[in-house]
Amino acid sequence: MPAETGAGRAGVTASPVGEVAAVLFDIDDTLVDLERAMGRTLQSIPDPALDHLGDDDWVRYKALYTADPQRHYGRFLAGELTFEEQRVHRVRHARAGFTPEPFLGSVAEAWVRAYEQTLPLHFRAYDDVVPLLDALDDRGVPYGAVSNNVHDYQRAKLDRAGLQRIRVLVGIDTVGVAKPEPAIYREGARLLHTDPARTLYVGDNLVVDAQGARAAGLVGVWLDRAGGSAAPGVPSRAGRSAAATCAGTRDAGTGERGDASGSSEPEEVPRIGGLDAVLQFLPSVR
Ligand SMILES: [Mg+2]
Question: How far is ligand 1, taken at its centre, from the CA of residue 90, in Å?
């Protein structure tokens, strides 16, 4: 694909960098559409207390769960909650806005079991993932993933989404830290046998992915799927939310996603609206 085509369609807002030799990706909402999977899962779990919800209610309920405004996923990353507990806290908070029925005991246990069994059934890669990986393979460019969740859970997620070909995977238990700690991005580059300065890191979270990777010495790129048509240099609403979620905190950058409202001034990093635009960063298509 011509570089101009990919760049134009994706809405890149900063100059491409040169000599990129490898690509690392975030997983959730970058390679795998986790928001969609969570939404479908939430609505499919039997819960009589929510039977009265209309379509608009379901939209708000799912948004509340996925946004995680109380940052329970961050508490998981900080070691304060188990992975299962953060889910329970999140759904309890979302549910409280729609029903007075308590979310405790056997009700919560049954919900967690149903969620765990159902969510993986909905893991899907975005449509632009496989074409990009094909193009990277054609060019001999190695790639991998660095995620803010544990390795084995994300391995299963990639496999379920049909991305078994992504062999290099770094989780928070691989190096004992989460993004935006530099060591986790650098471990990805080490496993790809590339210089971090020549390794692209692409993710949907402006702060934890793009800016965090850049601070670690990689080439951070922000994947802004929702705001790809925004004016050059102007972060989209989604980007501002992502920045607000994560600014200055270790506990940001969700595996199970989470954007909160707020504002901050993000550092300028390359922004793309789709993964096809990754190719323009590679020397062979400049
Ligand atoms: Mg993500």
Answer: 18
